[in-house]
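User: Earlier you gave me the apo prediction for this protein. Now I'd like the version with flavin mononucleotide bound, so I can compare the two side by side. Same sequence as before, with the ligand SMILES added.
Assistant: Got it. Here's the input I'm using:
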Amino acid sequence: MNPRHPASTALPNGPSPLGGRRSILAELRAHSKSYTQKEFLSDLVGSSTRLVVEISTDNRERVVDVDTEYLSKLRDALRYGHHEAIVITVDEAEKPHAAAMGVRLLNEGLAIFPYIDSRTYRNIKAGSPVSLLFTHNALIFCDVVLRPFKLRYVSGRNSGFYVLDADVDMHVEAVPKLIVEEGQRASVILSVLGVYEGRGRYFSYSRANSMLIEALVYLTKIRYFISSGYREIPELSRWIEMLSYSISLVRRLGSSDLVECAETVCKDLKDLGVGSVC
Ligand SMILES: Cc1cc2nc3c(=O)[nH]c(=O)nc-3n(C[C@H](O)[C@H](O)[C@H](O)COP(=O)(O)O)c2cc1C
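And here is the structure of the complex with flavin mononucleotide:
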């Protein structure tokens, strides 16, 4: 049993091509059931579904599903449908990686939707545990997206998990139990090991704060498509428009640290060759 990668502990032992670390997909392909319960994720699974892996949770004693003791905490925190979070995974050298991602609480568990060519998804496929950090603080998202050199990782509560040394409100430690690939994205359904209070501070609603997170969403979309060679996609001009509005609002209403991040967004866009936004 590999305590760092609880999701892989349900797998039979044997030589691993990853030098002691198992690839969830490589090994679970052999053990997964074919997908017969379309209704299980009917809103996620469409006709173009390429791959579905159901991860056996023989290690049930370690896995606490969200319909037990943590449900009310999570329901309370994730009450508005889709929420933004910081997702932390580890790579094969056990190096932690943080990325901003959307999270949903479904009946079946927590779900995240990484692009299939993201580092986060690569780590998950290779057996990484998953920490989800919840905060409304745009500056933490800013560090993750634009200033990763500032991030300080510390150990989570369970072995092999990492979190950020940051004022988040709550964090969840989880392992994947179902992976569905569809189009450019995967849906990863997670089993929750624990939900932990953070040291978040009181936070009044600020439009500038929310708009900065919005700007970061569009920046990462533009980054992704431009770096993949899709400079001409029709959505680009709409995203640039949204970004431009978000930045103008941060500049008008935001504190100096929010504005500083907005200027870094502008610089990043200029470096991408999208200079006319700010
Ligand atoms: C608030 C926010 C939410 C995001 N949500 C997602 C998401 O749900 N899925 C995704 O793949 N990328 C999402 N992104 C973009 C990723 O953070 C970005 O592409 C990142 O580089 C992930 O890829 P990586 O794992 O390779 O670092 C989001 C970005 C922001 C700022």
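For your comparison, keep in mind: DSSP finds seven helices and nine strands in the chain.
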